[in-house]
C-alpha cells in the first residue's frame, strides 16, 4: 500500500526520482508506472535484487510508459552517490526513524534535490507510535528497528533547516508545503501485536485483524476505503510531510561605482 500522495508531490512523466530506502519497492514501482525515471536506493542488496527483477517484469508486461527507465543503487543514506540537484522528486518513506544521524541523511536528500524540486518524507506518527512503544519494548528494541519518535514540529524543523549553511544563512532552506496521514486501519493492528507479543502472529486477535488488512490490500473494498478516510486523520499510522526546494535565485554580479 502506498503512503505518499504522488499527485501532491507533483510527480510527472519524465521526472527523475529517487526512492531513498526503497525497501521492497512499493513506491518505486508506482512512480515507474507513472512514467518517471526511477532510482530505487537502499543498503539491502537482496531487496534491491528483487526490486530490479520486478522493474524488468513490469517493463516486459507493458505496465510502464515508453521511455520510462528504472534502476537500483546500493549505498549509504549518509553519503548518497549522486550529483547535487540530480532529482526532480524524492521519496523517503519510513526510513528516517531507523537512522541515528538523521540530520545528515536529510541534508543529503536536500543536496541531491534540484531547485524547485519536491520531497516527501513519511515516518510513524507520534501518537500511534508512542502507544506501540508503551505496550512493547520488543517493538522498538529489535535490531534495525525504530530509534526515535518524531513530532511533526521536530521533523519539519530538521528538514527546513537542512539546507542552511554552517553560519545559519538560508542557503537552500526547504519550504514546508503540508502534511497528510495514512494507514489508519493499520495502527490498531500494531497495538494488538504489541499487546499480545510482536512475534505472536498466531494469536487469534492478531490473525483476525491481519486478514482484514489483507482484504484491504488485495480487494480495496469500498467499506474499508471509507473507514480509512475517517481513521487516517485520527490515528493514521504514518505521517507524510511535503517540502519544496526553492528555485535558484540568480545573484547579480557586483559592479564598481563610477
In short:
This protein has helices at about 5-10, 25-35, 45-60, 100-110, 125-135, 135-140, 150-160, 185-195, 205-220, 220-235, and strands at about 15-20, 35-40, 70-75, 85-95, 115-125, 175-180, 240-245. It is α/β, with parallel strands linked by helices. The chain has a domain at about 5-125 and about 145-185 and about 235-245: Rossmann fold.
Q: Tally the helices: what do you get?
A: 10
- Global structural class: alpha/beta
> What are the low-pLDDT stretches, counting only 5+ consecutive residues below 50?
165-169
Spatial extent as radius of gyration: 20 Å
Strand order of the largest sheet: 3-2-1-4-5-7-6
Measured by DSSP, the beta-strand proportion falls in 15-25%
Name of the CATH homologous superfamily of the domain at 6-125 and 144-183 and 236-244: Vaccinia Virus protein VP39
Structural shape? globular
Terminal residue distance: 65 Å
Protein name: SAM-dependent methyltransferase
Organism: Nocardioides currus
Domain Methyltransferase type: 18-121
GO molecular function: S-adenosylmethionine-dependent methyltransferase activity
